[in-house]
Structure formats: C-alpha cells, structure tokens
C-alpha cells in the first residue's frame, strides 16, 4: 500500500484527489495539508511514501516545503508536484529542491495515479509540457563556466560521463545498455555510482545536471 499526503491550499482539489485515491486499491491518503509548513510537519509525523505537492500556497510555498522535506536525512518521502500550466516558471526550482516528479492538474486521472506509483517506486517523471519548458529554460541560460564543468566531470569516470550524457538525452536503462554495449545491470551500477558521486536524489536531477554542465545541449 502506497501512503500519500495531499498538499494544496484549495480544499476542493484535495477532496477530488482524496476521492480518486480512495477508489484505488493500492493507494491510501494518510493526511492532508493546506500549506507548506503544514506539509513539512505532516511528513515528519506520518512518514508517507509520497507527498502530492502544489506550488503556490500561502505562507511557505511548495518549493520551500519540498526542500525542507528532502533536507531531512530520515525522510524517505518522495515529492510529486501537481500544479497548473501557469506555474511553469517554478518547475526548475521545484526539481532543484528535490521533487521527483512534476505533473499538471489537467492531465488524465490515470496519468496522475500512475505518476504516484512511479515516484513511490523510486523513479522520476516529468510531464511532456514541463519538459519543453525546462529545455527552453536551459536554452536561455549562458554556457556553464569551464571550472564548474571541470569540477563535475573530473569527479566521474569516462564511462560514467557517457552514462550521464545518455541519461540527459532521456534514454532508459535498457537503451543506455544497448548504446554502450553493456548489460542493464552494469548500466544500473554506473547510475548508482553517479547518484552517490553527484549527490543526486534521482534521475531527474541527473538530467538537470547533464544540461547544467553542458554534457547535453538543448535544441536551439
């Protein structure tokens, strides 16, 4: 059973999600919060598997709450941001704060339920529309400083750099294994080392890092 907390300042949104999850056998709502501060306290107390987090809320917003949840060394809760198209400007901040996924509220209900399961399993996902916004964000940024890129690249092996590049391009573990002519188990081992060396919480953050240091160039 996947235990979920709902974080949104709109009771109607929380109610809709609660009803949706109540009809899903493998999910249950462990608690609800109306702002970021309540969310942090709730997660610390209940230790749910997933927190479904809105961004724009009074007081502490979802980005700060996500950061605080992930800063807790005892927290295993993964944050799935569920927001509106108008919040695209906050996508990068939320992912940098440690969100494991980012979906928009007008997506099909099945997609949202599947997203909860994906994040709970330790994977990451980003809505296609959000991915486009991220690419636009990276495209508008200046080239990374040579010293920044060198500091990261010097800390990993050539093979790990290849794997990081392919992760940044969006390849799955199987596709990475095929591309590099290695086993899937070996690809996973390289990823595990990248998570440790780069202090990355999940695959989303490896993608961000690959763009940030210039291993993957956004389309122009």
Automatic annotation (TrEMBL):
SUPFAM superfamilies: C-terminal effector domain of the bipartite response regulators, CheY-like. Residues 149-214 form the HTH luxR-type domain. It comes from the Bacteria. GO terms for molecular function: DNA binding. The lineage of its organism: Bacteria, Bacillati, Actinomycetota, Actinomycetes, Kitasatosporales. One of its GO terms (biological process) is regulation of DNA-templated transcription. Gene3D superfamilies: 3.40.50.2300. Residues 3-120 form the Response regulatory domain. Coiled coil: none annotated. Pfam families: GerE, Response_reg. The modification 4-aspartylphosphate is found at residue 54. CDD domains: LuxR_C_like (cd06170), REC_NarL-like (cd17535). It comes from Streptomyces subrutilus. This is DNA-binding response regulator. Keywords: DNA-binding, Phosphoprotein, Transcription, Transcription regulation. InterPro entries: CheY-like_superfamily, NreC/VraR/RcsB-like_REC, Sig_transdc_resp-reg_C-effctor, Sig_transdc_resp-reg_receiver, Tscrpt_reg_LuxR_C, WalR-like.
């Amino acid at each position: 059973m996947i235990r979920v907390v709902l974080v949104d300042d709109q009771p109607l949104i929380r109610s809709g999600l609660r009803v949706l999850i109540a009809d899903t056998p493998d999910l249950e709502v462990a608690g609800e919060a109306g702002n970021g501060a309540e969310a942090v306290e709730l997660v610390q107390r209940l230790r749910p598997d997933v927190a479904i987090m809105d961004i724009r809320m009074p007081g502490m917003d979802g980005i700060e709450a996500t950061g605080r949840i992930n800063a807790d060394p005892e927290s295993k809760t993964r944050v799935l941001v569920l927001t509106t198209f108008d919040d695209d400007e906050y996508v990068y901040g939320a992912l940098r704060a440690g969100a494991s996924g980012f979906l928009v509220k007008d997506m099909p209900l099945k997609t949202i339920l599947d997203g909860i399961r994906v994040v709970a399993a330790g994977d990451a996902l980003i809505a296609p529309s959000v991915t486009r916004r991220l690419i636009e964000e990276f495209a508008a940024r200046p080239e990374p400083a040579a010293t920044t890129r060198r500091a990261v690249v010097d800390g990993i092996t050539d093979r790990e750099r290849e794997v990081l590049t392919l992760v940044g391009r969006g390849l799955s573990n199987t596709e990475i294994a095929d591309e590099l002519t290695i086993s899937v188990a070996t690809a996973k081992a390289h990823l595990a080392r990248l998570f440790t060396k780069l202090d990355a919480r999940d695959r989303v953050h490896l993608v961000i890092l690959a763009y940030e240091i210039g291993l993957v160039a956004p389309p122009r």
